[in-house]
Specification:
The protein contains five helices and three strands; from the N terminus they run ααααββαβ. The protein has helices spanning 4-27, 33-81, 89-171, 175-187, 211-218; strands at residues 193-197, 201-202, 231-233. Helix 1 packs antiparallel against helix 3 (89-171) and helix 2 (33-81) packs antiparallel against helix 3. It binds zinc ion.
Length: 239
């Protein structure tokens, strides 16, 4: 068995390990970097695809309007021509020329309109699909952030609790031993002790401990691991 002194230090060590782990977890909390990057990528795609759908729709609308206006003009000229009011051959010829030009123009618009009827719906569908994906990603981000905040609060509360426990646990330890422990902790990432595992190994660095070190542990002496320099804690029965 470890001495009462070392057992008290071990208690403090367990608090310090908990604090160390809480700090590490808090540092690795992710506000959703990956999801945010995905959202940015989707926004960019939507800009391209949504822009294309809008351009095509606008072009279609414009051509349909032009076509309607041409139809109105054609109908108006037809009406004039067949009203019997236009008798001058030159005037008739002019009207017919205008009709021809309007019809030709209309024909060329027809082709593009047919093409646009094919292009607009899939372009719109594609943009809508991206919009939906973006919406889903935003919901995913909100959910992720909600969980991250909950975890952060939980970590903060555990941290406060451990920090509150620490002074009393430290007070229990002999001042010299505590100073030694703190000095080791400072050098070694906040972890100053290691358990002897399998009755022969340092639990922190895995080094196989020499017989004299193990014997010193059994003799209740304060011994450190020769490799990682942490204070060893030995309890019989540890497998
Ligand atoms: Zn070690």
């Amino acid at each position: 068995m470890a001495s009462a002194e070392l057992r008290r230090l071990w208690k403090l060590h367990l608090i310090d390990v908990a604090i160390y782990e809480i700090r590490a977890r808090a540092a690795s909390l992710d506000p959703g970097k990956k999801i945010l990057a995905e959202i940015e990528a989707l926004k960019k795609t939507l800009e391209d695809k949504g822009g294309r759908a809008k351009t095509l729709s606008a072009e279609l609308q414009d051509l349909e309007l032009q076509q309607k206006s041409a139809d109105d003009k054609i109908a108006k000229i037809d009406k004039e021509l067949y009203s019997g009011k236009v008798v001058n051959p030159r005037e008739v010829e002019n009207y017919e020329k205008e009709l021809e030009s309007l019809r030709k123009n209309r024909g060329s618009h027809d082709e593009r309109i047919l093409e646009l009827w094919e292009l607009v719906p899939p372009a719109k569908a594609e943009a809508e699909k991206i919009e939906k994906a973006l919406e889903a990603k935003r919901a995913e981000l909100a959910e992720h952030q909600k969980k991250a905040v909950a975890l952060k609060n939980q970590l903060e509360s555990s941290f406060k609790q451990r920090m509150a426990e620490r002074p009393a646990a430290a007070k229990e330890v002999d001042a010299n031993l505590l100073a030694k422990y703190e000095a080791i902790r400072k050098k070694l990432d906040g972890v100053g002790m290691a358990e002897v595992i399998k009755r022969s190994q340092c639990g922190a660095c895995g080094t196989l401990l020499p017989e004299r070190t193990l014997q010193a542990c059994l003799d209740d002496k304060v011994v450190t691991c020769e490799s990682c320099h942490r204070i060893l804690y030995y309890t019989e029965g540890v497998i």
